[in-house]
Amino acid sequence: MSITRRKLLAGSAGLAAGLTLGGGKFGIGNAFAQVAEPTYTPEAGASLRVLRWVPFVPGEEEAFLANTRRFTEATGVEVRIDKESWEDVRPKAAVAANVGSGPDLVMSWFDDPQQYPDKLVDLTELGEYLGARDGGWYPGLEGYAKRDDKFIALPLCAIGNAICYRDSHMKAAGFSEFPNDTAGFLELCKALQANGTPAGFPHGKAVGDGNNYAHWLLWSHGGKMVDENGNVTINSPETLAAIAYAQELYKTFIPGTESWLDVNNNRAFLAGQVSLTANGVSMYYAATNDPAMAELAEDMRSVNLPIGPVGESVELHQTSTISVFSHTKFPEAAKAYLKFIYQNDAMNDWIEGASAYCCQPLRVYESNPVWTSNPIHESYSRASASLRPNGYAGPLGAASAGTMADYVLVDMFAEAVTGRSSPEDAIASAERRTARYYR
């Protein structure tokens, strides 16, 4: 199914009509009527700098830059886009916040804004307006962007994480269907290794893939870093069971995954070194855009991560928010920019350009035809609705953000599976490190 700008704009027009009439697909007309549309007038001579992560899907960046150019054409405000690697956005943003200079806006990860909420512009007025207009924010995404009921950032997207695998290799390993539970998944990985087509998941400090994998390992076995009150609970039988499972999986992996960053599993899969990993949909499009990988692309499938002993799907997805630093000289211009890129046609264009890589932050965009344009997109379409925040089961804040930024959970699994520490010692180390943040 091809997606055209006409179809997207027609969809946005239909949604707008529904909102105006007080109905619409999501029944949000009344909420919209109760929230006044804010107006922001850029300051005279305003210009902006935006720090964002390096894109993995060219179409996503193209759409983002196109929306930015349209904003400049409409307002005269020049916007400079600076790009940094996924791993470097976090420290660059933290430095900017703490020294009070640098970019005006940042596209950051997970609960990073919670590390410096007093250094950010209050976006509550705009956040409440957009939520009312567009069917509401997904709760998991919204939680990352709010502190004490105030928006310190705007939810931008969830980058869906799903198992990507070679269908022919799975069948050659003796499986007609992909197993949906962790026990069956381990057996599949053992069979793939025996056939010389192993799996591979990052145990290195990968902002996205490493954290996604480690949190799934823990949560699928019923473990959690902290309880609802923020008490450290990582030292538990459930965590020990998760490590035991991770050790068995690690035995089936290609060597070297303990040093993998976010690019390494992509490269290994596309080079034919592994036939199963977890990644965003970007890996599929990297294959489809290379004629030499046509056979591999045709053989690729995606599926959500298996369900463990906990009995339900529990996944962490890479989550990005966009916020405005309080040191900006042009806060009104910054808010005008945000309002512009969250217009229905602009957001639809961006979601389309991302080709299912960026799952929408607001429910109204569930109807974007990108989600039904290719069967491989289905596993990624549920990311915003299904994500569990990394601070589970406690509140998001400086402690959860610090623990994530310090790779406490990632390191715990890496130490145990590689044999650098016993499972018990790895857990004890994670407990001590976590307790430094949750005081």
From TrEMBL:
Stated family: Belongs to the bacterial solute-binding protein 1 family.
Gene Ontology CC: periplasmic space
A Pfam family per the record: SBP_bac_8
Biological source species: Aureimonas fodinaquatilis
Keywords noted in UniProt: Periplasm, Signal, Transport
Places the protein is found: Periplasm
UniProt main location, coarse: periplasm
The protein, known as: Carbohydrate ABC transporter substrate-binding protein
UniProt superkingdom: Bacteria
Taxonomic lineage of the native organism: Bacteria, Pseudomonadati, Pseudomonadota, Alphaproteobacteria, Hyphomicrobiales
Gene3D superfamilies: Periplasmic binding protein-like II
InterPro entries, per the entry: Bact_solute-bd_prot1, SBP, TAT_signal
